[in-house]
């Protein structure tokens, strides 16, 4: 296993019954988005009602894991002791997700090379047997 | 008309760097600010029958009312919006209370003693704390906010400076906005603070070169793009026109107020990566601004002086576009023109120094300064000013006031 992106002590995901399936899929290294089975509208973070058609019916679509950097920030201040600095936080526009974006980290890239529009792909960092965090690296395809 | 809401008094304690007021409790500071604002209005504490606040205030109105010995509490209200979003909304709620006869004299207050609780800039995360027992696992979210934050905290999106860098970085990408544009905002507000004896940073001049040399916090935010974190308290008194007419100071009319959020905003950029594309690189307040000006039958050209919530320089720039002082994307050149500078700019802004240089009171000090600006009491007085715009935090749900001297 590769070196951890953050030291221990960083906040871990917090979930409720609605969002738990996202993290269960992530533990299996699948990136998913919630999809309204009424109108097809996709949403992240997960929510109980479709904001487009107000249906409560939904399922989970497995995404390709590819995407594009929509915006980003390079953080130079430590949040936990022993943290590597600087690190990149980005908003990723996910492919095949109906315009849905998510916040994550960019890894395997120098901060000065990060740019809006760059193609990225998901990689999962295993935190424990039942937790993996999706992060993104520059696309290799 | 006689019940029309007016601002009749303003007051504050001394302001200090965060953690520097350790010997007075936060609620004692609130009481001091309330008493000063009431005295400024020429009223007695016995006249106060309502209290209003915002931002998950720890100092609950019912306790303050008892400590102040209010003869009665008829209205106690807190705004349900994040942090500095609600300062203007709290004033608006106080105005609704007096206009509808729920109360006669409502004091809006904000008190902060960060050293006694936690420092905002850390998001409540203690970097020196021992790590939790392994293995890490998904934890139960105990609130809607935490369920939402649960999708950003594991990626280190904890500091506000990082969250609000996201829309600003995209604005730079779309429109060519530069760090020098942001710096110009910080330098201008520091100059205003240099005339204000209350300002925490009053004695610390800043040049654009100083701004550019300040350490990077969360790109593009340098240290001097970030607001202060302060200890202190301030308060404003809201009452009816009839009651305000014979008081100590010239009453300032609340011409219009608005609060709220566009569709789908949630908590704003902190948790929401999915704001619509047309809203993402904005302060999210365009529609709110239109409603605000519409209510008062005024436009951006009628604003003589503005107090614009400045958590971060970029958010100021986005709001200037939201409120129509320049076109979308032209905020950079607009600030570069010197528009925000007292006395010669077209829109003297944050004449007290703002949250960047006076004090971080979640923007209630911007309402205080709005009143002073129209009374002619500001240390950067805009001659003949009749209309002042005051805004609360942008890139989140927000609120705003148009204040007037007629």
End-to-end Cα distance of chain A, whole Å, is 23 Å
- Range of helix content of chain B: 25-40%
Number of strands of chain A: 9
For this entry, what is the oligomeric state of its chains? heterodimer
Output the CATH topology of chain A. OB fold (Dihydrolipoamide Acetyltransferase, E2P)
| Proportion of strand residues of chain A | 35-45%
CATH class type of chain B: Alpha Beta
Which segments of chain B are poorly predicted (pLDDT under 50) over 5 or more consecutive residues?
A: none
Poorly predicted runs of 5 or more residues of chain A: none
Q: Report the mean per-residue pLDDT of chain B as an integer.
A: 94
Characterise this structure.
Chain A has one domain (20-138): OB fold (Dihydrolipoamide Acetyltransferase, E2P) (Beta Barrel), CATH 2.40.50.840. Chain A is built from one helix and nine strands. Chain A has one helix spanning 20-27, and strands at 14-15, 32-36, 42-43, 58-62, 66-75, 87-94, 101-106, 119-128, 131-138. In chain A, the strands form two sheets. Chain A has a five-stranded antiparallel sheet with strand order 7-6-5-8-9, covered by helices on one side. Chain A has a three-stranded antiparallel sheet with strand order 3-2-4, covered by helices on one side. Chain A is globular. The model of chain A has no long low-confidence stretch (mean pLDDT 93). With 406 residues, chain B is of the alpha+beta class. Chain B has one domain (5-116, 227-404): Thiolase/Chalcone synthase (Peroxisomal Thiolase, Chain A, domain 1), CATH 3.40.47.10. Helix content of chain B is 32%, strand content 17%. Chain B has helices at residues 26-41, 61-68, 87-99, 144-149, 160-163, 165-175, 179-193, 208-213, 241-244, 277-280, 286-296, 313-322, 331-336, 354-357, 364-375; strands spanning 5-12, 16-17, 50-53, 75-78, 105-112, 139-140, 216-218, 221-222, 230-240, 252-260, 305-307, 387-391, 398-404. In chain B, strands 1, 2, 3, 4, 5, 9, 10, 11, 12 and 13 form a ten-stranded mixed sheet that branches. In chain B, strands 7-8 form a two-stranded antiparallel ribbon. In chain B, β12 (387-391) and β13 (398-404) form a beta hairpin. The longest helix of chain B has 16 residues, at 26-41. Chains A and B meet through β1, β5, β6, β7 and β9 of A and β6, α4, α6 and β7 of B. β1 of chain A pairs parallel with β6 (139-140) of chain B, so a sheet runs across the interface.
């Amino acid at each position: 296993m590769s070196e951890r992106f953050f030291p221990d002590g960083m906040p871990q995901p917090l979930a409720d019954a609605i969002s738990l399936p996202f993290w269960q899929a992530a533990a299996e290294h699948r990136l998913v988005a919630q999809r309204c089975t009424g109108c097809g509208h996709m949403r992240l973070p997960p929510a109980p009602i479709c904001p487009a058609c107000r249906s409560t019916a939904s399922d989970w679509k497995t995404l390709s894991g590819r995407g594009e950097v929509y915006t980003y920030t390079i953080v130079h201040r430590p949040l936990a002791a022993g943290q590597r600095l600087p690190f990149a936080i980005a908003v990723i526009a996910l492919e095949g997700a109906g315009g849905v974006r998510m916040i994550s980290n960019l890894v395997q890239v120098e901060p000065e090379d990060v740019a809006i529009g760059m193609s990225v792909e998901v990689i999962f960092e295993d935190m424990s047997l039942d937790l993996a965090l999706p992060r993104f690296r520059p696309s290799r395809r | 008309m006689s019940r029309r809401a007016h601002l009749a008094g303003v007051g504050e304690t001394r302001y200090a760097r965060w953690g520097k007021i350790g010997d007075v409790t936060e609620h004692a500071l609130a009481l001091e600010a309330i008493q000063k604002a009431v005295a400024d209005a020429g009223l007695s504490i016995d006249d106060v029958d309502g209290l209003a606040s915002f931002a998950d205030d720890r100092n609950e109105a019912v306790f303050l009312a008892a400590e102040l010995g209010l003869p009665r509490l008829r209205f106690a209200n807190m705004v349900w919006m994040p942090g500095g979003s609600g300062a203007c909304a709290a004033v608006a709620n106080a105005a609704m209370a007096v206009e509808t006869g729920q109360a006669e004299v409502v004091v809006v207050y904000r008190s902060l003693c960060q050293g006694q609780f936690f420092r905002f800039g850390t998001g409540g995360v203690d970097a020196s704390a021992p790590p939790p027992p392994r293995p890490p696992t998904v934890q139960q979210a105990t609130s809607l906010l935490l369920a939402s934050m649960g999708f950003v905290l594991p990626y280190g999106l904890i500091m506000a400076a990082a969250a609000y860098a996201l829309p600003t970085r995209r604005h730079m990408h779309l429109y060519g906005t530069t760090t020098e544009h942001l710096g110009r905002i910080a330098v201008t507000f520091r100059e205003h603070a240099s005339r204000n004896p209350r300002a925490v940073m009053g004695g610390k001049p800043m040049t654009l070169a100083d701004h550019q040399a300040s350490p990077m916090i969360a790109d593009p935010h340098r240290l001097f793009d970030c607001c202060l974190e302060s200890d202190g308290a301030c308060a404003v008194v809201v009452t009816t026109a009839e009651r305000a007419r014979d008081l100590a100071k010239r009453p300032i009319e609340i011409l219009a107020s608005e609060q709220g959020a566009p569709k789908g905003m949630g908590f704003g950029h902190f948790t929401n990566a999915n704001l619509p594309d047309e809203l993402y690189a904005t302060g999210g307040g365009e529609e709110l601004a239109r409603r605000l000006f519409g209510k008062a039958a005024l436009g951006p050209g009628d604003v003589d002086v503005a107090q614009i919530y400045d958590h971060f320089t970029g958010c100021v720039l986005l709001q200037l576009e939201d409120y129509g002082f320049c076109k979308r994307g032209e905020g950079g050149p607009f600030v570069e023109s010197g528009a925000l500078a007292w006395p010669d700019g077209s829109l003297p802004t944050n004449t007290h120094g703002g949250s960047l240089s006076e004090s971080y009171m979640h923007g209630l000090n911007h309402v205080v300064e709005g009143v002073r600006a129209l009374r002619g009491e500001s240390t950067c007085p805009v001659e003949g000013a009749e209309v002042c715009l005051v805004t609360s935090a942008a890139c989140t749900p927000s609120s705003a006031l148009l204040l007037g001297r007629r």
